[in-house]
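Worked example 3. Consider a protein that binds hypoxanthine.
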Amino acid sequence: MNVLGIIGGTGIDQLQGLQLADSHQLDTPYGEPSRAVQEGRLGDQRIFFLQRHGSPRAIPPHLINYRANLWALQSLGVTDVVAINAVGGISASMRPGRLVIPDQLIDYTWGREHTFDTGADGSLMHIDFTHPYDPALRDALLEVARQEQLPHHGRGVHGVMQGPRLETAAEIRRMERDGCDLVGMTGMPEASLSRELGMAYASVCMVVNAAAGLDDKPLTLDMMRETLHSESAVVRRLLLALAASGRY
Ligand code: HPA
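Given these inputs, the predicted complex is written out as structure tokens:
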């Protein structure tokens, strides 16, 4: 049986519509997750929810304990992780307000604890990461997005930067040449850690601003929050429909 776990990002502090049943304060071999994992019902389905930036404390992207977060979800029985990411748009079509279900990523992060592999058990862990997002889970998301008629892009390359600062205009031009459509800070190592633990992982990206240097507006958190607010309502509809899709 598949069990859905949702990792909320900026703008998704609480999962509205989640009927809270329990809260799991876990300790893991890697330390504590960002906060207690909430368990509850979304529609008729039992799901788990974890806010990766913590609450009320705001943990910046480079200090999130990604290993503890993924370990905690897996130990609760989660098989499918849907990650919500606020991102900047690089490609012309990925403008603020768009929802994107990416199919590829490029990892530009550094210095994060990015693997469970310590080499201690004598075997090497080289996961296949050709397709970083689980194709079946992505298909399930695309199917419900179509059914619910939620405007979205079904593909995109998510470039994951270290942060917490935003990028320079030249960094964004380089990312564009690399083939990135989106830029965010939290997509890695979440995706590869999920794969190491054998959980399916897919991402729903909310474009909240045009990436640095692409329009003449200064990048402010207030501007991003405004877009986030309207987009998170659409993301909630998508998650509700996914939970009810029969996969769980
Ligand atoms: N860059 C990196 N991360 C982001 C951005 C951005 O422009 N917008 C939201 N998260």
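Take a moment to read the result before moving on. The pocket of hypoxanthine is lined by residues 86-88, 161, 166-167, 183-185, 208-209, 211, 224 (CB under 6 Å). The chain has one domain: 4-111+130-243.
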